[in-house]
Specification:
Elements: H1 2-17, E1 24-26, H2 60-64, E2 69-71, H3 81-89, E3 93-94, H4 106-119, H5 127-132
Parallel strand pairs: 1-2, 2-3
Protein name: Histone-lysine N-methyltransferase SETMAR
GO biological process, one term: mitotic DNA integrity checkpoint signaling
GO molecular function, one term: single-stranded DNA binding
Amino acid sequence: MTDRISLCEALAKRNEIDPFLKRMVTGDEKWVAYYNIVRKRSWSNCGEAAQTVAKPGLMPELANRRGVVFHQDNVRPHTSVVTRQKPWELGLEVLMHPPYSPDLAPSDYHLFLALQKQQNGAYLIQIGQSEAC
């Protein structure tokens, strides 16, 4: 608990000295219930990796911009050596995240909370309905 508090205090003090919140990039995922899911299909030969396609809407200019502060929580997929090295290789400043504190991720308590409140009780029939939200 003290690690969590001291890390939060250090980040708050740092933001007073050098504001970084407008330069922060963070990410997470949110599952949205959808009726009649269309599954994507791809074909690959035996022994070959599946073809990867970049997701539409990604903004590579943010990753190439100087001064970006990167934040992600510390769930298992984010703590692998390869995943931890990539932001450093890209020259991004990485914010620390207290262990076992998923409630401190900005996407969970701000962005996704608002999305969840808007989606409560909704039943989506077409994919366009979720994109419009």
